[in-house]
């Protein structure tokens, strides 16, 4: 008989953005962070979390408080698959979907935190332990509202700190304007540095094919979310038309969506986000499935937890550098020679500052 969950709670915490962040379709208003805390019958305490970038946080909190948290009490904490599937099934009318997946992620990551503590292991080891240090690229200097000069400065600063690449937002009205900005960055950083671009689902398939062709001499690392996430056929057509890898995944909320993309050759890189896909349990399934297709994993955002997951799996290629938890943590993610180091501390490896979290509780 395993140890049961004796207490569980959820709360919503707002964190201001550290810098203005804009892309082709939206701006990052604030991080609504949804925490779940669980206690077990043998006295362990786990904390998981999930997030939005400014809308829907209360809906996730309600899903947890009204439906999922009460179901947790009495469950065996180490039967994570059983708990995940029971909770998923209990929300029939809102699955598969963002609110349920985000809520499940907060529960699932809390249970993994407990599992790490019971095993006395850091997450990256318990989840697979492939290698501790992983390459890092910077997104923080590539926002769409920045001038070309600022983009170039940001890329050079990232390069000086030893990071392996940068991501630049695209989606200016004309592809030639994007090209000018990207060419300036490429000229500044030279050939031995990755440049990725991100269109945040803003294009049609035809326009994306046109722009990929226009940018073909830039040797881009990938083109991210060129099309709406539900246009799988458009992604498949685009992927066949260009030598530049097509990266997708931050707007997908189930393992089956990834299977469909991979099966149809519509994704060259998967960017599975541990919160949006429903937690560590489904995240690992997507990563392993991608490995079977010989596809790399470069997860979206949440570097503080993704560093451990990328380190856990053999096809983890990149962590995205966007610090967003500094206000509510006591120590930052370690970076050495441009590579992120998965924390060796037991648990998820995030050094929460309880007082700072308490100060920011919305409800
Ligand atoms: Mg993106």
Quick summary:
This protein is α/β, with parallel strands linked by helices and 363 residues long.
How many H/I helical runs? 12
- Overall morphology: globular
User: pLDDT under 50 segments (min length 5)?
Assistant: none
Proportion of residues in extended strands: 15-25%
**Total number of strands:** 13
Attached small molecules: magnesium ion
The name CATH uses for the topology of the largest domain is TIM Barrel
Instruction: Give the N-to-C terminal Cα separation.
Output: 35 Å
Number of domains: 2
Q: State the CATH class of the largest domain.
A: Alpha Beta
The CATH homologous superfamily name of the largest domain equals: Enolase-like C-terminal domain
The chain-level mean pLDDT equals 96
Structural class: alpha/beta
Note down, in words, how this protein is organized.
This protein has 363 residues and is α/β, with parallel strands linked by helices. It has two domains: 5-120 and 354-359, Enolase-like, domain 1, CATH 3.30.390; 125-341, TIM Barrel, CATH 3.20.20. It is 38% helix and 18% strand. It has twelve helices and 13 strands. Strands 4, 5, 6, 7, 8, 9, 10, 11, 12 and 13 form a ten-stranded mixed beta sheet that branches. The chain has a three-stranded antiparallel beta sheet with strand order 1-2-3. Helix 1 (57-72) crosses helix 3 and helix 5 packs parallel to helix 6 (175-189). The longest helix is centred in the N-terminal third of the chain and has 22 residues, at 98-119. The chain is globular and about 60 Å long. The protein starts with a strand and ends with a helix. The model has no long low-confidence stretch (mean pLDDT 96). The structure holds magnesium ion (MG).
């Amino acid at each position: 008989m395993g140890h049961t969950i004796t207490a569980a709670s959820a709360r919503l915490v707002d964190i201001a953005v550290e810098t203005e962040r804009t892309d082709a379709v939206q701006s990052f208003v604030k991080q609504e962070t949804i925490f779940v805390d669980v206690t077990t019958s043998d006295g362990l305490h786990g904390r998981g979390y999930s997030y939005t970038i400014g809308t829907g946080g209360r809906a996730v909190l309600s899903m947890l408080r009204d439906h999922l948290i009460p179901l947790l009490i009495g469950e065996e904490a180490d039967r994570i698959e059983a708990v995940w599937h029971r909770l998923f099934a209990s929300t029939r009318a809102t699955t598969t979907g963002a609110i349920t997946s985000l809520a499940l992620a907060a529960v699932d990551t809390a249970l993994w935190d407990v599992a790490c503590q019971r095993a006395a292991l850091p997450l990256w080891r318990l989840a697979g332990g492939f290698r501790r240090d992983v390459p890092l690229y910077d997104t923080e200097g590539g926002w769409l509202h920045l001038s070309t000069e600022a983009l170039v400065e940001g890329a050079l600063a990232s390069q000086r700190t030893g990071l392996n690449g940068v991501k630049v937002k695209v989606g200016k009205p004309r592809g030639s304007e994007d090209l000018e900005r990207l060419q300036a960055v490429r000229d500044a950083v030279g050939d031995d540095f990755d440049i990725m671009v991100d269109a945040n689902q803003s294009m049609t398939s035809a326009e994306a094919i046109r722009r990929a062709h226009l940018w073909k001499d830039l040797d881009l690392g990938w083109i991210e979310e060129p099309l709406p996430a539900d246009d799988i056929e458009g992604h498949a057509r685009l992927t066949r038309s260009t030598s530049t890898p097509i990266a997708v995944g931050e707007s997908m909320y189930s393992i089956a969506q990834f299977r469909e993309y991979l099966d149809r050759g519509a994704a060259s890189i998967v960017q599975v986000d541990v919160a949006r896909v429903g937690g560590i349990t489904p995240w690992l399934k997507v990563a392993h499935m991608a490995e079977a297709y010989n596809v790399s994993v470069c997860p979206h955002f949440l570097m503080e937890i993704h560093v451990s997951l990328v380190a856990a799996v053999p096809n983890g290629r990149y962590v995205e550098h966007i610090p967003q938890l500094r206000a509510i943590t006591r120590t930052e993610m370690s970076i050495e020679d441009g590579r992120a180091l998965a924390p060796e501390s037991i648990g998820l490896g995030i050094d929460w500052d309880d007082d700072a979290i308490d100060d920011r509780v919305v409800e």
